[in-house]
Amino acid sequence: MVDVIVEQHAWEDDTADEAVIGVWIYQNGARVKKGDVICEMMIVKTQMDIEATENGILEIVAQTDALVKKGDVICRITPE
Amino acid sequence: MSNSRTLTLGRAVREAVHHEFKVNPKVFMMGQDIFKMGGVFGTAEGLGELYGPERVIDTPISETAIVGAAAGAAMAGMRPIVDFAYVDFIAVCFNAIVNYAAKTHYMSGGQYKMPMVLLLSTGGGYSNGAQHSQSLHGTLAHFPGAKVVCPTNAYDAKGMMHTALRGDDFVIFMSSIATVGMMMLGTPIKGTLSNVPEEPYEIPFGVARIYREGTDITLVGTGVNIHQCMEVAEILEKEGVSCEVIDPRTLVPLDREAIFKSVKKTGRLVVADEDYHSYGVTGEIITSVVEIDPTVLKSAPKRVACADVPIPFARPMEEECLPSTKRILAAAREALK
């Protein structure tokens, strides 16, 4: 199982402390491929796509509207 | 477990545009800040790096020039998409739209086609002031020669964009800003998100979508207002009232038959549209029912539209002027009396 985290370089430090989860494009249990955009996140006024880092089954940790910080786990992907 | 993708309306439109760019070298886009920035509403995101500045053309701030050039390119056989951002600025290029884009096919006896798509963002609710908040649905649907489409969810938006880009007609493609899923405006409205297949598909113009079937009252809504109609339907359901909710999906051609059929069944009609109250879409839809047979109505039809004033900047005043769940609910209660 691989954690997908909010990367340290996701945004510049002085932009904001937190981002908000906007849309999960794939739902819990979906089969995702490495590179698929799986989630849209928002940092202040900038929209950011989160991509799957592995092939596998998606488990969502941070739900829609959740606030996340750098280093937080937003989902897990279990390779089959 | 389902492997389907839930997309925002904006992403779904982008997917259709990317696909048509890939399969048809005649498709290109013009607009302000599209090459590097991807457009004000992200419509062109990712296109610039894939297709370069010759097909993703950044223009000066002159809507007049953009629309005129695009209409000319369409006559010469290209398939331009104009990323226009705010609908309000069509005012400066109305000659190119009304007298050229909309009429050339007819006036040339069919010798010239006009396969051009004008992408417009509409609607208020964000304190953007009177020049960045209008809908102007009625203005653009009024003159003949253009197809006018207003998708309200991701599934329809993708299919309608494919239809627009594959056809030979001038298509005015309007989306409420509130429905496209721009995160800076908050979490997307749930009803705008849909499961969207990866493969392309077309949705025919002129066919309404029945969002919800019902028997007591018909609520017709365009753009963001369809989602408010759905909220009203949920509230009224708890009171034992069954609402039928209809999205025309396209204003030109308008599926008058579906609306009449529904009102014939329910006997009551409320129409919600964010364009201005007078001389607008709401009046047109009501007329298309009563001119066939006014006796199908058990009560006076109601329209919920933007007040006939420049849309205020001040948030509470703007809320008063625009259609809302509250105002649609009040109109429905009146119609149900």
Write the layout of secondary structure elements.
The complex is a heterodimer of chains A (80) and B (337).
Chain A: E1 2-5, E2 18-24, E3 31-32, E4 37-43, E5 46-51, E6 56-60, E7 67-69, E8 73-78
Antiparallel strand pairs in A: 1-8, 2-4, 2-7, 3-6, 4-5, 6-8
Chain B: E1 6-7, H1 9-23, E2 27-31, H2 47-51, E3 56-58, H3 63-75, E4 79-86, H4 94-101, H5 104-107, E5 117-122, H6 137-142, E6 147-149, H7 154-166, E7 171-176, E8 194-195, E9 209-212, E10 217-221, H8 225-237, E11 243-247, E12 250-252, H9 256-266, E13 269-276, H10 281-290, E14 302-306, H11 315-321, H12 325-336
Parallel strand pairs in B: 2-3, 2-4, 4-5, 5-7, 6-7, 10-11, 10-13, 13-14
Antiparallel strand pairs in B: 1-8, 6-12, 9-11
**How many structural domains does the protein architecture of chain B include?**
2
Q: What is the fold-level CATH name, i.e. the topology of chain A?
A: OB fold (Dihydrolipoamide Acetyltransferase, E2P)
State mean pLDDT of chain B (0 to 100 scale): 96
In CATH, the architecture of chain A is: Beta Barrel
CATH class of chain A: Mainly Beta
Low-pLDDT regions of chain B: none
**Biggest protein-protein contact in the assembly:** A-B, 21 and 17 residues
Rg of chain A over CA atoms, rounded to whole Å, is 12 Å
Can you name the CATH architecture of the largest domain in chain B? 3-Layer(aba) Sandwich
Strand order of the largest sheet of chain A: 1-8-6-3
Low-confidence stretches of chain A: none
Query: Per the principal axes of the C-alpha atoms, what is the gross shape of chain A?
Result: elongated
Number of domains of chain A: 1
Instruction: Count every beta strand of chain B, where a strand is a DSSP E run of 2 or more residues.
Output: 14
Count of discrete alpha- or pi-helical segments spanning 4 or more residues of chain B: 12
